[in-house]
Amino acid sequence: MASRTGIVKWFNAEKGYGFISCDEGDDVFAHHSQIKENGPEKDLHEGESVTFDIQDGEKGPMATNIQKL
């Protein structure tokens, strides 16, 4: 599956999830366990650019392999 790019729409670090606005127009669920970041800061910030893959989750599309640009 090809990586996609998008912008973090919002992310709640306390709850560990948020949404990414995909460049193709859809919003995709993002969970902190899918952020590929070294170190303790596995969070995202509103407006941050990311690349990610998409897979079908229990409640719809979910971002996987999230990497900050």
From TrEMBL:
GO MF, one example: nucleic acid binding
InterPro entries: Cold_shock_CspA (IPR012156), Cold_shock_domain (IPR050181), CSD (IPR011129), CSD_CS (IPR019844), CSP_DNA-bd (IPR002059), NA-bd_OB-fold (IPR012340)
Keyword Metal-binding annotated: no
Compartment(s) of residence: Cytoplasm
Gene3D superfamilies to which the protein is assigned, alphabetical: 6.20.370.130, Nucleic acid-binding proteins
A Pfam family the protein falls into: CSD
Keyword Cytoplasm in annotation: yes
Domain CSD: 3-68
Key words, A-Z: Cytoplasm
Name of protein: Conserved domain protein
Organism: Clostridium botulinum (strain Eklund 17B / Type B)
